[in-house]
Amino acid sequence: MSRLGAKAIDIPGGVQVAVAADEVVVTGKLGKLAVKSHAGLAIEVDETEKKLKVTNQKAHGAIHGLMRALLANAVKGVSDGFEKKLELQGVGYQASLAKGELKLTVGFANPVLLKVPEGLKCVVPDPTHINVSGVDRQSVGQFAATVRGVRPPEPYKGKGIRYVGEYVRRKAGKAFGAK
């Protein structure tokens, strides 16, 4: 049995949880998410204590913990939301946003255009920073990883797109005059 899966999820005020046969619908102030449930698990909502509990009916330990984590992310997403912050480092590296497309000028011959997915909000506070936010944790992380994958930070000069606070291990490079 999963120890993490047995922990109850607190439901904050303003969040409603509806359990159907094959999915759980979580609705809050920021939006609505539907999580597909697994057949071997029972999901119960305790309205008096404002808790959501996942119980394992069969021997599905890994699925039990996964389902609990997905539901906890859905509850946190519709109440608080998720955000990833990226920064561009390099001479002339810039980002801009126009008509739902993120334009990245990161040292290629042409700028890279990325369409912002439905349900996500992308903000460019200044040309070297990008904030990606939304309700679904997986989509926020995936789009941030796609943006970072356009020009990942390289180890010699440190140029590229990185998460704010990410440490990039630097290499020394070629040593001149070594005999």
Can you tell me about this structure?
There is one protein chain. The chain is an alpha+beta fold and 179 residues long. The protein is 18% helix and 37% strand. It has 2 helices and 13 strands; from the N terminus they run ββββββαββββββαβ. It has helices spanning 61-79, 137-150; strands spanning 9-10, 16-19, 23-27, 32-36, 41-46, 51-56, 82-89, 94-98, 101-105, 112-115, 120-126, 129-134, 160-163. Strands 11-12-7-13 form a 4-stranded antiparallel sheet, covered by helices on one side. A 3-stranded antiparallel sheet has the order 1-6-5, with helices on one face. The longest helix has 19 residues, at 61-79. The protein starts with 8 loop residues before the first strand and ends in a 16-residue tail after the last strand. The model has no long low-confidence stretch (mean pLDDT 91).
Kindly report the spatial arrangement of strands forming the biggest sheet. Answer: 11-12-7-13
What is the count of β-strands?
13
Report the order of strands and helices. Answer: EEEEEEHEEEEEEHE
Overall shape: it is elongated
- Total count of helical runs of at least 4 residues: 2
Mean pLDDT: 91
Work out the strand percent. Answer: 35-45%
Structural class: alpha+beta
How is the biggest beta sheet arranged?
A: 4 strands, antiparallel
Q: Percent range for helical residues?
A: 10-25%
Unreliable parts: none
Distance separating the two termini: 61 Å
Q: State Rg.
A: 21 Å
Describe the structure using short key phrases:
4-stranded antiparallel sheet; alpha+beta; 179 residues; 18% helix; 13 strands
